[in-house]
Amino acid sequence: MELHVMTFNIRHGKGTDGKVDLPRIAAAIEQSGADVVGLNEVDRYFSRRSGYEDQIGWLAKELRMHHAFSPSVSLGANRLGIARQYGNGLLSRYPIATHRSHSLNRGGKMAEGRSLLEAIIDVQGQLFAVYVTHLSLNPFLHRRQTDFIIGQLDRQPFPSLIMGDWNMRPGSKPWNKMTQKMDDVWQKAGTGNGDTYPSFRPRRRLDYIFISRQLHAADAQVVAIMPTASDHLPLRATLRLD
């Protein structure tokens, strides 16, 4: 069984040309051929900057995919009584059996809220746990968030993958801690440096996909189909269940 997965920080759809263009994001996802896509910096009725659009709902409808959302920041309700939110999203060509959101805002007020999206997807009768996150730039908070995530993974009975913008470098302490538990798909199957940021002339590897030991990374690639779509490039991997 093969599963094509991708992680993509979409910066609320704002491209390098300064334009918010969700159809461009949808086109990049469609052309990637990914079955399961983790998204960071997704707006949901958030503000004028994205036209108060439910971005994850719009993308799911456009791409005919199932979806889930995890708010990292929640503002007051709009005039229709709908919460204005910003956070992580999941798109899946396979049914999402369950999903929940974990707050990573422990330890006091933060400049920007963080969360962990947890979902169980059903791939032709095989259940997989999929996590999507975007971690803090603050080293202390980053360590706490990483520890929390590992605690969740320790309790997960299904083959698991976790992806997102980790704001860390390969070989750092958080990376070493994660790779004691999970495999970094780029380390296992990527070619080159795996840099995803910035989208033009990338020089930093900020976006990662980690997989549990039941899964095997057949390949991993940085997707440069549409570098104007965001300030990050997507990272895509083909996974096989051992």
Strand content is 35-45%
What is the first-to-last residue Cα distance? 9 Å
> What is the number of helices?
5
Structural class: alpha+beta
Order of helices and strands: EHEHEEEEEHEHEHEEE
Low-confidence stretches: none
Main β-sheet description: 6 strands, mixed
Radius of gyration, taken over Cα atoms and rounded to an integer in Å:
17 Å
Q: What is the number of beta strands?
A: 12
The residue fraction in helices comes out at: 10-25%
What does this structure look like?
It contains five helices and twelve strands. The protein is of the alpha+beta class. β3 (66-77) and β4 form a beta hairpin. The longest helix is centred in the middle third of the chain and has 16 residues, at 139-154. The chain is globular.
In a nutshell, what does this entry contain?
This protein has five helices and twelve strands.
Secondary-structure topology with pairs:
Elements: E1 2-9, H1 22-32, E2 36-44, H2 55-63, E3 66-77, E4 83-92, E5 96-103, E6 115-123, E7 126-134, H3 139-154, E8 160-165, H4 173-181, E9 183-184, H5 185-189, E10 207-211, E11 215-222, E12 235-241
Helix pairs in contact: 1-2, 3-4
List keywords for this structure.
alpha+beta; 242 residues; 38% strand; 12 strands; six-stranded mixed beta sheet
